[in-house]
Amino acid sequence: GPKVLQIPSHQIIDMGQMVTLNCDPVSNHLYFYWYKQILGQQMEFLVNFYNGKVMEKSKLFKDQFSVERPDGSYFTLKIQPTALEDSAVYFCASSFDSAETLYFGSGTRLTVL
Amino acid sequence: AQKVTQTQTSISVVEKTTVTMDCVYETRDSSYFLFWYKQTASGEIVFLIRQDSYKKENATVGHYSLNFQKPKSSIGLIITATQIEDSAVYFCAMRMSNYNVLYFGSGTKLTVEP
After folding, report:
1. Can you give the three-state secondary structure of chain B, one letter per residue?
2. Count of CB pairs separated by less than 8 Å, A with B
C-alpha cells in the first residue's frame, strides 16, 4: 500500500529540549495527521492539517506542540520544550481527502529523559 | 461522545483456522466510516479493510472480511485461513463523516500458532 515515511525512527532527548519529528506523506495526499501511542495503549489523535492549517486538534495537542509543512516538504511535529510525559511513539498519517483511508508511517519513538 | 471498544485483549488460534475479533462503537452520527488496522511486532501500522456505514454489504479483502451489524453498532473482523504472520495487534477505528478524527479501540493481540 501507500507508504508514509517517518524520520527518525527513534529520538532520545533531555527534558526541556526541542525536538522535531519529520514525516514524508504519500505524494498526492492532502490531509496530514499526528497520533500518539504510549507503550501498549491505543493510538490517540493529536492534530490534523490541511491546506497549510490545523483543522482539528485534541486536548493532547499542548501549547508546546506545533505542526507545519513548509513548501510542501516534510510535515513536521515540533515540541518545544519537551516534558517527560511526551515520551511515546508518534505516528504520522496522510490521506487523499477527509473521507479516504488514513495510511500510517512506522512511527518515531520519542524518549524524553 | 465517540467511543470504540474492543473487549478481547488477546486471542490465540492455531494456523489455518478462522478467527473473529469483536469491536463495538458509539456514535450519534448517521454517517461514519469503520476501519481495521493491524500493528506488527515492529510497530508498523497497516490498513486492512474498511466499512462505510451506508453500505449494507459486508466488506471483504483477501482473507479479511467484516461482520457489520449496524443495529448493534458492531463491526467484527474475520480472518480466514490464518497464518503465522497474521500475529499482530488488531485495532478497530471509527471516523464520523463530518469530523476528520480517527478514534481507535484498545486493540486485540492475535497470536497464531503452528
Report:
1. CCEEECCCCEEEEECCCCEEECCEEECCCCCEEEEEEEECCCCCEEEEEEEECCCCCCCEECCEEEEEEHHHCEEEEEECCCCHHHCEEEEEEEEECCEEEEEECCCEEEEEEC
2. 51
